[in-house]
Each structure stands twice: as structure tokens, then as C-alpha cells.
Amino acid sequence: MMSSSGLRRVVNALKTSLWAGGILVLLSGFAYFNTFYNAERYYKEGLKDEESKKGSGKAQFKKSLEKAVIVARDYPDSRWVDDAFFLIAMNYYWMENYEKARSQFEGFLDYFSSSPFTEEARYHYALTLIGLKQYSEGRLVLQRMFDSKRFGRGARFRWALAFREEEDWDGASSAFKGFLDRYPRGDLASDARLHLAEIELAGGDTLSAIKTYERYLKRAETSKENFERFLTLAELHYLEEDYVAARRTLRKVKGQYRDIDERSDLLTAKIELAEGDSSQAEKLLARIPSGNSRAEAFFILANLYEIQQRYDLALVYYDTVTRREKRSDYAALAERKKTLLQARVVEPDSADTVKVDPANEQFLLAQTYLLSLGDFERALEEYTKVIEEYPESEYAPKALYGIVWMKRYRLGDTLWQADLDRLLELYPESKAAKDARELLGDEEASGDST
Predict the structure, then answer these.
(1) Which of 261-265, 361-365, 398-402 is the least confident region?
(2) Which of 72, 226, 264, 326 shows its CA 20 to 30 Å from the CA of 254?
(3) What percent of the chain lies above the pLDDT cut of 70?
(4) Separation of alpha carbons 309 and 307, rounded Å
């Protein structure tokens, strides 16, 4: 029989053992909770970083992912396991690892269909598919969420945006208009108007773009990006020859940012020229100090002086653009114009006479407008000069082919067929005529009009 002192020692030992086990259980639970807490904390910090700058939260998302993986792997029966798997998928999404995000979202939606995170997971699963350029599949998932109280508005917006990302301009335009009919107010409505304005502008519908930009800017916050958009709106008014509206819009951006002021002065000078006040335009163009606007300003000045037959000044400004603005799109244009002008005005007996083929230079000038600036209207003018001034040169059929191509594929001008007939009639044996036949023959055979 055990003595009373021996019994006390056994009881005390048992108590110590039980206490130690409780500590281990407690510590284990604390480690589990702490790991999940940190996973969630890093994720929220990553989201906050993303708000300030896209891509800046990747380091925090990576930390969150590591912690969430530990919870999902080591504690598969815990009450927060669906939270952990949701965080894993979301971290991959924000890190733009869309392949892994897709598989994680699909697994989550299969195994945790009753989780409180299911709807949010499905929404981001749709965005993941769009990130993978699986636009139709992503839009289908979004379409099923249109009636969601929490995600319906966002789903409709991202559904419209997916059309734009896919470059389905008609679908995007229709979708954004439908969104604005349903949700005419709010931040997403402003974003939808901006997208719609840019789509209309890209499609050549300048008047609709003006109206949509005006609606957007009426409620837009003050920022440099929106001052840029005011400038774009002023340029659209200028293109529509509404100079009063253009000036009124420019007054809203003046004095805010130096580079915007330079572009504003450049546009004001163009308006002055359009209205016939060349003296005021000269002053504005000559004082633009730096930046991308100066090359265009000096190029316009050189053109102006050339028209006025002030050839010495024209050559000076063309030369300035070629030497000081070598990286600008106008450097190549200025070089062509300078060479042409020198060939036309320098005395034939002068030692400075430039030995050039003016037909070639005129053709290259048109090519430069087309390829460097994408200015189809101006390229059309310069190609026409080749044909009118040098009809017997080898460059005339090439210029006609350029006109046919631009009218057919870039300007949507139905008169391209008449220019093609002219090319085939005047220069039937030329390489340009052969190329035109092959191009249009291939198109008819394949049904391709791109």
C-alpha cells in the first residue's frame, strides 16, 4: 500500500503532466492562429500598396501566400481552411500568376461552394480568365453575376471592359453604353465614359467622343491625367473647327503643368493659323522652350516661312529640328523638307547645290508622314504631289499605290477603286500595279479585308 506522501507525489506528477500537455495544445493553437493572422495582414498590406501603385504589393502578397500555404497544409481541418485557400488564390491573382490563380480558384469553387468567400472568388476567377485572354469564358462567368448585389455593378463593368481588351470595339461600345444606362452615376460610370470616349475617338466618331469626354470631365476629379484629357478635348474641338470651344477648354488647363502649357501654346498657335493670324502664331511657336512640342512647333514655323517664301528662315528652322530634335518624329520630315527646299531654291551653279532626285524626296516625304507619324491625310497630300509634279518618274505609280492602300484600309474612302483604275491604266506594267493586283486578288480569294 502506497504511503500518503507517495500518493501526493503521483498526483503532483499527474498534474504537472496535464499542465504541460495543455501548454503544448495552447502553443500549437497560438502558432496556427498567428500564422493565419499574418497571412491576412500581409494580404491587406499588399492591397493597400496596390491602391497607391499597381504592382507595388507583390512582396506583401508573396509573404501572405507563404503563410496561407502553411495553414492550408498543416491545419486542413481548421475552421479557417477555406479562408487560407481563398487567400492562396487571391495572392496568385494579385501577383498576376494567372495560371496558378485559375487552378486555385477552380479548386476553391469545387470544394468550398458554401464558403462566404465563394461569390468573391467567382468574380476574381472571371477576371483571371480575362487576364489569360480567355475573354468569352470570363465574360460568361461575369454575366452570371449581373444580379449579384455585391458584385453586379463591377461584373457588368468588367464584362464591357473585356470587349475592349479583346479589341471588339462595337461590342465594347454597346456594352459601355448599356452600363451607363443602368448605372449613370458613380466612379465606375466615370470610368465607363472615359473608355467609351476613347473607343469613339479611335473609331473616328469625333463628335460623339467630344460629347462623352465633356460628360466625363464635368464630374472628374482634378488631376494631371484629367488635365491631359481636357487638352485632348480641346484638340478634338480644333479638329472640328470649333475654335471658340477649343479656346474655352484650353483656359481650364493653363498654368497647371509646364509640359501641358507647352502643348496648350502649340494648339493655340494652330488655332491662330487656322483663323488667319500668322503673326501671333509665329510668336507662340517660336517661344516654346523645350520638350516634344518644340520639334512640331519649329516644323510648323518652317512650313509657314516656306509658304511665305522666306526660304532662309525656313531652312534655319528645318535645320534646327534635324540637329536639335533628332529623336522626334519630325526630324526625318524636316530633313526631307530641307533637302527638297534646297533643291528648289539654291542656284544651279552654286557649290551648295544639293544633288537630289526631287521626285524621290517628295515620295519619301509622303512615306515619312505615313510611317513615322501615321498622318494619313497629310501623307495623301504628299503622295498626290508626287503624281502631279513628277508623273513620269518611277515614284508616281508607287504613290498611287500608297493612295489606294490608305483610302481602302485606313481612311474608308470609297473612291479608292477609281485610284486603282487610274494606276492600272497609267502604269499597267509597273511593280505597283502588279502589287495592287496581287493584294486585291488575295483579298477576294480569302475574303479578308484586314
Answers:
(1) 361-365
(2) 326
(3) 87
(4) 5
Distance, in Å, from the CA atom of 230 to the CA atom of 236, rounded to the nearest integer, reads 10
Name the amino acid, one letter, at 47.
Answer: L
DSSP summary character for residue 185: S
Mark 68-77 as b/e (b = at least 16 C-beta within 10 Å).
bbbbbeebee
Q: 358-368 and 395-409 are packed helices; what angle lies between their axes, rounded to 10 degrees?
A: 20
111 residue type, one letter: Y
CB neighbour class for 101 (10 Å; exposed up to 12, middle 13-18, buried from 19)? buried
Q: What is the greatest pairwise CA distance in the chain?
A: 137
Phi (first) and psi of residue 283, to 5 degrees: -65, -45
CA of 87: how far to CAs of 37, 65, 70, 73, 438, in Å?
A: 12, 7, 12, 13, 57
The reported pLDDT for the residue numbered 346 is 62
CB 102 within 8 A of CB 125: yes
pTM of the model: 0.63
d(CA 115, CA 107): 13
- Cβ neighbours of residue 84 under 8 Å, at least 6 residues apart? 36, 39, 68, 69, 71, 72, 75, 78
Cβ proximity of 269 and 253 under 8 Å: no
The residue with cell 500549437 is 28
* One-letter amino acid of 358: P
Q: What are the backbone angles phi and psi of residue 395, rounded to the nearest 5°?
A: -90, -15
Q: What is the DSSP string of 91-135?
A: HHHHTT-HHHHHHHHHHHHHH-TTSTTHHHHHHHHHHHHHHTT-H
Q: Rounded distance, CA 258 to CA 368, Å?
A: 29
What CA–CA distance (Å, rounded) separates 31 from 19? 18
Q: Quick check: 107 and 82 in contact, CB under 8 A?
A: no
CA–CA dist 59, 42 (Å, integer): 9
Tens-place pLDDT, residues 111-160: 998 899 999 999 999 999 999 999 999 999 999 999 999 999 999 999 99
For residue 162, which of 148, 172, 174 has the smallest C-alpha distance? 172
Backbone angles phi, psi at 391, to 5 degrees: -65, -20
Polymer length in residues for the chain: 450
Q: Distance between CA 357 and CA 396 in Å, rounded?
A: 13
Range 364-380 burial, b when 16+ CB lie within 10 A, else e: bbbbbbbeeeeebebbb
CA-nearest of 339, 285, 328, 278 to 307 is 278
